[in-house]
DNA sequence: TTGGAATGTCAACAACACTGACATAAAGTG
DNA sequence: CACTTTATGTCAGTGTTGTTGACATTCCAA
């Protein structure tokens, strides 16, 4: 029994055994592997990695974002991000424009080539996500998103919500 | 519109826009960061990494598992796993016993020290998972698990289901 | 006895993260 | 204007985790 005291934290409907929680942990582990498998295959052919994918994804989502903003979203050091951005810029997938108001800032945009890669990666990942959603059913989708959102650190949740459902 | 053909794959209740799917992708990204944050902090103090955590976790879940079985679950090369196991064995967290039937096989067990680390890591992760479950509510939990399970590669799903809810 | 499976080890390498230090340019502040 | 801070970039070094390839040992099984 997970909670020998018999208390359940005030949520009277939830009895969470350690075993159930561990299964959730393992589900996250195995699912994340599947989640990254398709993009990883595409990226390895182009000698890119997950770090490139993340940069391309968020530049696509927030065109014109600054380096600092991207740094906050990705949660890595500037040296780490810079290595990735340099190769993407050299290869003509990302364009870096000096800011108009503040000339210290660099605003990042995907080129047409960059957008093409983003579509390819995103299409693979969306296909899997769509299949998972359909297999699980409509009610499951909302629960999935709710639990994931609650699992985030609050800083990350801000970034997540900030770009939430722009087109809806 | 996500699907200009108007088809929806036979699940008449699901209209999945690209935007909704992308939000799901981002939710996975941000949530996984939160999911690993607590163990990562504990591990870095002990100069271990996620690879050690994974090994410890699955040895705890399946005591006596062979190296080959662990290899299949973790999906890494034996050289990579061996490096991790060697340090865990040297540090007295894992015990490797020669198989009785097949003496080529090594059966892996956590020592009391190993179990203690597992409890510490697992407790941190379960606390976050429990909080997320409670914040999202009981209905959400089932949906969460269903979507994650559907997102796995079939090989991984086998491993996942094989150790499913042993105590339930 | 020979073949193959399971395991372990060595070497080399790459991706991706980190720290620390330093440089440059531009903006803000006194 | 002098000074500080901010944003960015770069160089060097290090660590973890993953990869390939090669090779040795042990041992089951045909």
From TrEMBL, chains A, B:
Classification via SMART domains: HTH_MARR
Keyword terms: DNA-binding, Transcription, Transcription regulation
Residue stretches making up the HTH marR-type domain: 18-153
PROSITE patterns: HTH_MARR_1, HTH_MARR_2
InterPro entries, A to Z: HTH_MarR-typ, MarR/SlyA-like, Tscrpt_reg_MarR-type_CS, WH-like_DNA-bd_sf, WH_DNA-bd_sf
Pfam families to which the protein is assigned, alphabetical: MarR_2 (PF12802)
Protein name: MarR family transcriptional regulator
Organism (species): Parasulfitobacter algicola
